[in-house]
Amino acid sequence: MLLFQDLRKSIFDTVNERFKISENDVYLDDTGHSDITVRVFRILKSPDGGENVINDIITSLSGKDYVEKAAAEGGYINVWIKRPYMLHEVIDSIERFGIYPNVFQESDRVSVEHTSANPTGPLHIGRARNSIIGDSVYRILSRYGYRTVRQYFVNDSGKQMISLYTAYIRYGGPLTIDSLLENYQKIYRDLEKDPGIEKEIEKNIERYENADPEVYGTLRKIAGVMLDGIASTLKRIGIEFDEFDWESDLLRDGSVKKVIGMLETKDDDGAKFIEIPGKKIYLTRKDGTTLYFARDIAYHLLKAENSEWMIDVLGEDHKDHARSLDHVLRNMLRIENRLSFLYYSFITLETGKMSTRRGNIVTLQDLVDKTYEEALKIVNEKRPDLSDDDRKRIAEAIATSAVRYSIIRVSAPKPITFRWDEALNFEANSAPFIMYSYARATSILEKASEPVEAYGTEMEPEEADLVKIMYVYPYYLKDAANDLKPDLIAGYLVSLVQKFNDFYGACRVIGTDPSTYARRIRIVKAYREILSDAGNLIGIKMIEQM
RNA sequence: GGGCGCAUGGCCUAGCCUGGAUAGGGCAACAGCCUCCUAAGCUGUAGAUCAGGGGUCCAAAUCCCCUUGCGCCCGCCA
To answer: Is there a contact between A509 and A448 (Cβ–Cβ < 8 Å)?
Structure first.
């Protein structure tokens, strides 16, 4: 099986034999001039105009069994790949293995750490961007063949968490998310009037780090309640974890102390710090309690034992922290594992930035609920023929997919301003747009019988275009995996669906002559397979009807 | 003040790493398409000094420098 990348390589080799070029000079064309383009401006600059070399190359390329045509045009050699060849590769893979492509294999173990939000409240949509990106990266790398694990670092030891605990002790109330959150917001308000509270928090940090069973037990319970809330909301949109790693465990089993011992620390009035170029980083307070940086190093050392590649999904506010962490791990602790940080910018509301403490947030729960209501309204309108249960099931799939899609489609470094009307747009460039085409393809197959004849290879342009974009799927998957860019998959899906919609409009499937029918049925089957495969990578749930 | 990001039609966005052929989509607007596999679809029209300036190059949205605007960081918080 020759995947698109292999074709590129093969063409590169062929050209390179005659004239040394750069690998970047052979690329997937996206301007409609060809399938694969070879940039030959440099050959044209040769004293003789390079005409002979180019003709040689074209002759040689034309001889390949997968090449339809090769032609020089301006500074390029345009190469067209035979559509029947592409069609065969895709269909063959799907009929034999049930999947296309089926060839990626990576042996490395990869840890994807994402979300890791303080369990001090429900997840708001800004934080959810972390989860949605992280989970998509996890899915892409798993599909690519890596052995992946999803990890959530539960920060149950920091000041925020102790503040939540202190608020619960001070103000009482039931052990529920709402009550805890209310207390949490209240303590930050009261803190401004009553400096005694700060002392109380500090005392509790100390008790906590000295493993005071009362503080420890209650705090773990509080964190558990909050974390359950976060986890169940995430589960609703298809995001789960393999491991929840508790910061307090690292504290209690001595790994944090060990890390501090491994580093050359200096002392400032009892507080321990290390120095890295241009920076002083404190590992402990002067009362001896530990700081996040120390605990995060301990955590990464733990992860490094089980993963060749560690990926952290982080908000842009963590950039400096991560850079320092990388420096310490690499240069001071000699950790050689691959370590990648995937940063994303914040989601803000039209009214400004979100803050859990101040209470001006749109929670992920709110967003999914409201999207569901909106979707249900539309499904009720469009499908009165279905049962209540079916319509609810469809609305739920639309809501969870739409929420994920609206966030993943924008590349991570771009800031997002959240707007309800945009989040609730179910037209083109949305999850429902993608899902709808799956339902249509399914509908064709439901009405169709198994083809009996061999398929013909004379295709309409719309078929040929659809075949090409299906064939090229591995190329996008590879880039998305290597560059950690799930948004590429979102873009691919839209192009794929657009090609299918063109095909759908121009080419009947049912009722055509046997050899055309045999081919188109296979194309539709392959399409459904690839669409759901790619959709799955970013959490779009395909449904049979909508 | 220092550091890191971002800036593309009225709005959202792809392309930038790895410079090349008419800057690709979508929303909103306007004009059309359901006796034919689901119209959450499709076709067409209109809309772009690629923030501004300079530089490198045969060639710049893309690379370099400067400027402007916005976001984030610069805690013995996380």
So the answer is: yes
Nucleotide minimizing C1' to CA distance for residue A77? B21
User: Which run of H or E residues covers position A179?
Assistant: helix A177-193
How far in angstroms lies nucleotide B62's C1' from the CA of residue A298?
A: 41
C1'-nearest nucleotide to the CA of A42: B58
Task: For residue range A86-132, list pLDDT tens digits in order.
Answer: 999 999 999 999 999 998 888 899 999 999 999 988 999 999 999 99
Per-residue pLDDT reduced to its tens digit, A359-402? 788 999 999 999 999 999 999 999 999 999 999 999 999 999 99
Å from A129 (CA) to B51 (C1')?
A: 27
Return phi, psi of residue A124, to 5°: -95, 170
Task: Assign A4 a pLDDT band (cuts: 50, 70, 90).
Answer: low
Mean pLDDT, rounded, of chain A: 94
The helix or strand, by DSSP H or E, that contains position A151, with its residue range, turns out to be: strand A147-154
Nucleotide with the nearest C1' to A375 CA: B40
On strand B, nucleotides with any atom < 7 Å from a protein CB are 3-7, 12-15, 17-22, 24-28, 36-43, 58, 71-78
Amino acid symbol at A77: I
- Tokens 């945009």 sit on residue: A422
Locate tokens 């492509």: which residue?
A101
Q: Which letter, b or e, does each residue of A160-188 get, where b requires 16 or more Cβ atoms within 10 Å of its Cβ?
A: bbbbbbbbbeeeeeeeebebbbebbbebb
Q: What integer pLDDT is reported at residue A184 of this predicted model?
A: 93
Single pTM value for the model: 0.96
Question: Straight-line distance from CA A500 to C1' B32, in Å?
Answer: 22
Through-space separation of residue A517 CA and nucleotide B73 C1' in angstroms: 60
Sign of the dihedral through C-alpha A510, A513, A516, A519:
positive
Question: Which of A138-142, A275-279, A319-323, A456-460 has the weakest average pLDDT?
Answer: A275-279
Residues making up chain A, counted from first to last = 546
The nt closest to A406 (CA vs C1′) is B12
Phi and psi at residue A372, to the nearest 5°: -60, -45
